[in-house]
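Reopening this ticket.

The earlier resolution said the output was attached, but the attachment link was broken on my side. Pasting everything inline this time so it's all in one place.
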Amino acid sequence: MVSTHAETSRPTLPLDERTNGRQTLTAVEKLKPLTVTCSARIESLLGRAICTATIVGEDGYVLIKASEVPELEKARIKFSDGRTADLREVHRETRLDLLLAQAVGITGLRAASFGAARPLTMGQWLCSVSDTGKQTRIGIVSARIRRIPGTGAALGIRMDEKSAKNGKGVRIIGIASESPAEAAGLQENDVLITIAGEPVAEYRRVHDIVNKRQPGEIIDIRFLRQDKEESCRVRLASRTKVLQNWEGEDFANGGISLRSDNFPEVLQHDIPLFPTDMGGPVATLEGKVVGINIARVDRVTTFALPVEGFWTETQQWIKADRHPPKAVLVK
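Inline output:
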């Protein structure tokens, strides 16, 4: 093959600029108002970003990644026009890791315009909001729609296989970095006494109790530290996330979601997003929302719930909430 001087001297974009650099994103800049106005920021009462919401009703209805907001009363919503509001929980669907909520006192919103996800083909371009609406990023469909089995919830601890002294409790011998256990303040040599109100005397019992729960759930733990009884609340994560923490991959990948598996079906894409972007819309370059980002899995993988898997149910939840059954007076 012969290369001409013109071919070899042609300027090329750096690798990291080819998919989400300024020149590339110019082509989808017109979509930014569409994706931003149908999404909103979920934040703590102190203003820290938690995740993203997709607007599904002009009267304040939004869909949120449920495992990121186990206690909705400790969160609020901020819209692209600057308005903020408290949130009222309408329906929590653990199977999908979705929460339908309503922004209290908010109207006049622009709801997402949905399109079909199933006709999408491998390599088809998609776009999504990132950094709580400040950016629009693009990527491609990277795998066929499929089921993702669950691996269970985890604390992020290693335990002594032998019972603690006097047969009471289970001793912690290791804690994963950035794990639920570390975040809750547990330490090596703490002795677990009860988990979620259930006594534990061996490490298998700890696994059994935790595995019955979903990532994102909050459980109470009682433990001994230097013979003094203490307690804490722990927010569980998926076993996938914890294993990546053990291997030091989570930080390098910019973080992964607390729950990143156990979904009936997902649309996989490679848009570079953050865990705080989950819950936001993913759209075609024609502006049709085809799914909701539900899990950041690794540096090059994000799962989205395809619209066919949640929209029919969501409309039913909204209808039931808008028109609750009337009370019948019995004489």
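Reporter confirms the inline version is readable. DSSP finds nine helices and 20 strands in the chain. Residues 311-322 form the longest helix (12 residues).
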